[in-house]
From TrEMBL, chain A:
Keyword hit for Transmembrane: yes
Transmembrane segments: 12-36, 140-160, 181-204, 340-360, 381-404, 416-432, 444-462, 468-488
UniProt keywords, alphabetically: Membrane, Transmembrane, Transmembrane helix
Species per Swiss-Prot/TrEMBL record: Methylobacterium trifolii
Entry-linked InterPro entries: PepSY-ass_TM
Official protein name in the record: PepSY domain-containing protein
UniProtKB/TrEMBL annotation, chain B:
Keyword Membrane: yes
Name of the protein: Iron transporter
Alphabetical keyword list: Membrane, Transmembrane, Transmembrane helix
Record has Membrane as a keyword: yes
Length: 511, 106
């Protein structure tokens, strides 16, 4: 907080960005990877062979399996096989509070899949908004960090006196280290600014029912599910009858859904499958367009007759706005070129956070031989531990997928333990090494780890199931290689190339 | 920096920063929640639309309030403004029936 509006906003930008920066970096990196969630999952299950499975038969197999697991469940959810994911994924739960169980079935046999156990891309996807914590805790932390990021973005924008001119300004030959980091921060921050604003606001909207439920509570009180029905997003559910019933075969219902909609549903859910008033819901992929809105057909679970539909008619303005916001966050509509653009913007988001964090340290680097204070040392350790450590953890996650024995008990958990373990080790090692060497070593190690991923894959399972994944790994390795080279040439922050006489931290932001 | 450093450190400054952080997070959230609840009940739209529109707007409201808390001349002034706005919204929400026992479904 300083005197004057722009100064207090610069102060707010600096400090709000710092306190959530490390979490935001992880959110940006894993979120960006999530755009290729399906491809990552496919790569991590090399045993699968592309096969077209019959959706109706798959649904029957899933029901047979689920009946054995939990006939009196509150719900079953079946993700039907798709060409890019030739698996039946089943989920079942006794209560909406959890626990939620899940399994992968082979669509050829209906038995649990023999592919190596892994969480695949879903781990990175869930980490993006749950940070590997219990869902509610993780989502609140991510939601709060997103709100702080929104505050930080807005205060960062008003800090610029001439935002339009600054948009096109890049001083290549900037004289001081700090000036160069500031320019880098501005370039990646401002170039992709529309994306940053979009992604944080739409991200908040995806968490809105949890973060801001008070409108819903005020208008609907105890009958919150009515909201989703009235908004046209969810089919009306029947309350359980309270007496046991016999669930009709799912296959004919899936066949009816296909006949009616002209395509196979992507998922099939059954609510209260053991009850006389069981309700089955076929959910279809989003139709062409931006909105994240799935057409649904509901069936009477006992007779297999169609009860109704939802998500088919155009929704009203506010609902459409909301579903479009979620849609553009997830970018399911995007083709491969547009998805690559989203990924590049996501990388720039991570780079904005990363350069901002480094800039904080560079701007406060002690002049001459003064030792760095405790706060600065802590920030440097966290910076290195996050910016080099997290990517290293992800590379270790991929390597573990190829190197752990396929039949290891709790194999999927071991992959995740290795992810966190490698991250923690990299952060610890970085904390113990001298600052300028630590950056070069950390980034260089990350480059080598990413380069090793396709090679280890080739050595262990042979031909890659997703060649584009291997190309991406090499590209990421090159990126870290360049960063390591740069860090080796101009040590970060440890000693600014020349003392920044022309500007101090806040002045830099004010400029 | 020297003399200027004085004003930017010390217990009073620290208390001011801590106060603004608390006010910007909790105060902004409470005021935005009250506004969201009020708009959900009073916007001249279908019930589900009013809720959605108000909720979509709420994050912008929180952000602007948080920015105001840090831009305000003093912590007391920011607290007073947010308090008065919050009270006015709470009164309006009470008038709109937001605090009454749930009646029969509309």
């Amino acid at each position: 907080m300083r005197q004057g509006f722009r100064q207090s906003m610069a102060w707010l930008h600096t400090w709000s960005g710092l306190v959530v920066g490390w979490v935001l970096f992880a959110i940006f990196v894993t979120g960006t990877a999530s755009y290729y969630r399906t491809e990552i999952s496919r790569w991590m299950r090399p045993e699968l062979t592309a096969a077209t499975a019959d959706p109706a038969r798959s649904a029957d197999m899933a029901a047979a399996y689920l009946k054995r697991q939990m006939p009196d469940a509150a719900g079953w959810y079946v993700e039907l096989p798709r060409p890019e994911t030739p698996l039946i994924e089943v989920h079942w739960w006794k209560s909406l509070e959890g626990p939620f169980h899940n399994a992968l079935l082979d669509p050829a046999t209906g038995a649990p899949s023999t592919a190596r156990a892994t969480k695949g891309g879903d781990f990175l996807y869930r980490f993006h908004f749950e940070l590997g914590m219990p869902p509610t805790v993780g989502r609140w932390i991510v939601g709060l960090c997103a709100l702080v990021l929104l505050v930080s973005l807005m205060s960062g924008i008003v800090t610029h006196r001439r935002i339009f001119a600054d948009f096109f300004t890049f001083r290549r030959g900037a004289r001081t280290t700090q000036r160069r980091w500031l320019d880098a921060h501005n370039v990646v921050g401002v170039l992709a600014l529309p994306f940053h604003l979009m992604i944080v606001y739409t991200g908040l909207v995806t968490l809105a029912p949890m973060l801001m439920p008070w409108g819903l509570v005020a208008a609907y009180r105890a009958e919150a599910p009515r909201f989703y029905v009235e908004a046209g997003l969810m089919a009306d559910m029947r309350a359980p009858a309270g007496r046991p019933g016999t669930l009709a075969p799912l296959g004919p219902m899936v066949a009816q859904a296909i006949a009616r909609q002209g395509e196979a549903p992507e998922a099939f859910a059954v609510y209260n499958p053991g009850d006389a008033a069981a309700t089955a819901v076929a959910t279809f992929e989003e139709p062409h367009g931006l909105a994240h809105q799935h057409p649904q057909i509901t069936f009477d679970g006992e007779t297999g007759a169609i009860l109704g539909t939802a998500g088919m008619a155009p929704t009203r303005a506010a609902s459409t706005t909301s579903t479009v916001m979620v849609g553009i966050h997830e970018a399911h509509f995007a083709g491969s070129a547009l998805r690559l653009l989203f990924v590049l913007c996501g990388v720039m988001g991570a780079a904005t956070v990363g350069t901002g964090l480094v800039l904080w340290g560079v701007a406060r680097a002690p002049k001459g031989a003064e030792p760095a204070g405790l706060g600065l040392r802590l920030v440097r350790i966290l910076n290195l531990g996050t910016i080099a450590g997290l990517p290293l953890g992800i590379a270790a996650f991929f390597l573990a997928n190829r190197l752990l024995p396929p039949d290891l008990p709790a194999r999927a958990d071991w992959e995740i333990r290795i992810f966190f373990g490698a991250w923690a080790l990299a952060a610890l090692a970085g904390a113990l090494r001298p600052q300028d060497r630590a950056w070069r070593e950390g980034l260089g190690l990350a480059a080598l780890a990413y380069l090793a991923v396709p090679l280890v894959g080739l050595a262990t399972v042979g031909r890659s199931p997703v060649p584009a994944f291997d190309i991406a790994m090499v590209a990421v390795a090159l990126l870290f290689g360049c960063a390591a080279y740069k860090a080796g040439r101009s040590p970060l922050g440890a000693r600014a190339a020349r003392p920044a006489q022309d500007l101090s931290g806040e002045e830099a932001l004010r400029a | 920096m020297g003399a200027r450093q004085e004003r930017w450190s010390g217990p009073a400054y620290r208390f001011g920063v801590a106060g603004r952080v608390v006010l910007a997070s909790l105060g902004s959230y409470v005021v935005a929640s009250l506004l969201t609840a009020l708009l959900s009940l009073t916007l001249p739209l279908v019930r589900s639309e009013a809720v959605t529109a108000a909720t979509l707007l709420s994050f912008l409201v929180i952000t602007l309030l948080a920015l105001y808390v840090f831009a305000a001349r003093s912590l007391g002034r920011a607290a007073l403004t947010l308090g008065l706005v919050g009270l006015a919204l709470a009164a309006a929400l009470w008038l709109a029936g937001g605090f009454s026992a749930p009646g029969p479904a509309a």
